[in-house]
Design goal:
The structure is a single chain. The protein has 4 domains: 75 residues, no CATH class; 106 residues, 2-Layer Sandwich (Beta-Lactamase), CATH 3.30.450; 89 residues, Orthogonal Bundle (Helix Hairpins); 142 residues, Histidine kinase-like ATPase, C-terminal domain (Heat Shock Protein 90, 2-Layer Sandwich). Helices cover 54% and strands 15% of the residues. It is built from 11 helices and 13 strands. β9 and β10 form a beta hairpin. The relative contact order is 0.07.
């Protein structure tokens, strides 16, 4: 059985579906055919029994005496059964065949028991055989007899039988017809099942071909045609595959763009760093020392470039972790006002000449603590970077909305759509330190926390950064 199951499971899906459909139809057809055959058999036997009952007439005393003595009975005295078996059976099983009988029927123990029972109002029916082994339908009617002096005699049974040859022939013909019809039905069901399986699995074949094509060529632009009005499992699977390939294609494009942008951004500091180091090395090789002031400036440039490289690599690592990680697994309830306070302390150290005001109301959010603090620090760093000396930065947290307003030069309207792009930097800010990844990190962190961030020009000059995070003004129960 296990081998059969293993072999069945190794078949293609369409072959399995065809076999299952054929098996189901075969079971249904077999059930209907067998039921039909037994119903017809019952009706035919009922008709034979009725014919036997109609042929039986209540015997007269003369007939009873003739039956009792097992003597030849005139045709006028005994019911004329044409083409029937007629015989008298005694209690001991002795059978006396009457003259108008077509043969002798074998007597069984059940016949003797029925005769001895003395139930004269009941007729007994059974299947039997004659002396030649032919099948017959038998009716036995127990009868009471009287002796010559009109005393009750032993019971006898009048047995009438009819050949079942025509009935069995009809049943055999019916069985043959049902078998042929069932075979045609099963074969037709298998063919229809195969056709339905092929039609139904055609989208699966297309999906398989698409997956194999992607695995072979890594071409993520392939799409499977989907009927937009359909909502069955195949359509949903096709839409899911198309969404998956589209997401993978977008992810690949983002990765390629990140690699290209990172390579471009790294090229400049690396080239400058290489040039400065080559100058120092060449000075040592040729024995011509660089003037102390130039040497000091050169080393300061090397240090600045290394710092810029370290910051750029750190930002890239942050972005890669946010892209590949699962923020929901690292998120926890965070008091946003405390995170903003920590970021403000770092911002005040970086801009000691600036005045930073803060108006913070309690607000609790679910986010990754370190990433959220890094995002707020980046927003404050931009405000510090672009604020004029002695300027003011206003920070406010109310109802889950954090606003940071500086009084710097502001951002041109045509540049606002690009401020959250990776490595994008305003032409006016390219001379300032930075990698162009700070606001990208802010956008990614806020989005992963379920919020949104935006920048807009402020009235009177400067820029307003707005961060909205879902949360509550009170700590949830799990918050200590």
């Amino acid at each position: 059985m296990r081998k059969v199951l293993r072999r069945f499971r190794s078949l293609p899906i369409r072959a399995r579906l065809s076999l299952l459909v054929a098996a189901a139809v075969a079971f249904g057809v077999a059930t209907v055919s067998v039921t039909c055959w037994f119903i017809v058999q019952g009706k035919l036997y009922e008709q034979v029994n009725n014919d036997l009952k109609r042929g039986m007439r209540a015997p007269t005393p003369a007939i009873v005496s003739a039956l009792n003595n097992c003597t030849a009975t005139p045709d006028t005295a005994v019911p004329p059964f044409r083409n029937n078996y007629v015989q008298v059976v005694k209690e001991d099983g002795t059978a006396c065949v009457l003259d108008n009988s077509v043969g002798k029927v074998k007597v069984t123990q059940s016949d003797r028991t029925a005769i001895k029972s003395g139930d004269l109002d009941k007729a007994y029916f059974r299947d039997g055989t004659d002396q030649d082994g032919n099948a017959v339908r038998v009716m036995l009617q127990p009868l009471a007899t009287t002796t010559a002096d009109a005393q009750p005699g032993p019971n006898v049974g009048l047995m009438i039988a009819v050949s079942l040859k025509s009935t069995q022939s009809t049943l055999n013909d019916l069985a043959l017809v049902l078998l042929l019809v069932s075979g045609i039905g099963v074969v037709g069901a298998g063919a229809v099942g195969l056709w339905v399986a092929r039609a139904g699995l055609r989208p699966v074949d297309e999906l398989t071909d698409a997956v194999e094509h992607v695995a072979r060529t890594e071409d993520l632009t392939i799409r499977i045609p989907v009927d937009e009005e359909s909502d069955d499992e195949i359509a949903r699977l096709s839409r899911s595959f198309n969404s998956m390939t589209a997401s993978l294609a977008t992810s690949r494009e983002v990765q390629q763009q990140l690699i290209a942008d990172a390579g471009h951004e790294l090229r400049t500091p690396l080239t400058s760093l290489r040039t400065n180091i080559e100058l120092l090395t060449r000075s040592e090789e040729i024995g011509r020392p660089i003037p102390p002031a130039d040497r000091k400036a050169l080393l300061a440039s090397v240090t600045a470039q290394m710092t810029e490289l370290a910051a750029l690599i750190g930002d890239l690592q942050t972005l890669s972790r946010s892209d590949a990680g699962h923020p929901a697994d690292r998120a926890e309830v965070v008091a946003l006002q405390d995170t903003v306070e920590a970021a403000l302390r770092r911002a005040r150290l970086r801009g000691p000449e600036l005045t930073i005001t803060a108006d913070l109301e309690p607000w609790y959010v679910r986010a990754e603590p370190s990433a959220l603090e890094r995002a707020i620090v980046n927003i404050l760093d931009n405000a510090v970077k672009f604020s004029p000396g002695g300027g003011t930065i206003d920070v406010r947290l109310k109802d889950g909305e954090l606003t940071v307003r500086d009084h710097g030069p502001g951002i041109p309207t045509d540049e606002l759509p690009h401020v959250f792009d990776r490595f994008w930097r305003s032409p006016d800010a390219r001379a300032l330190p930075g990698s162009g990844l700070g606001l990208s990190i802010v956008a990614r962190t806020v989005q992963q926390s379920g919020g949104e961030v935006s920048l807009r020009p402020a009235d009177g000059g400067g820029t307003i950064a707005v961060v909205r995070l879902p949360g509550a003004p009170t700590a949830p129960p799990e918050m200590p």
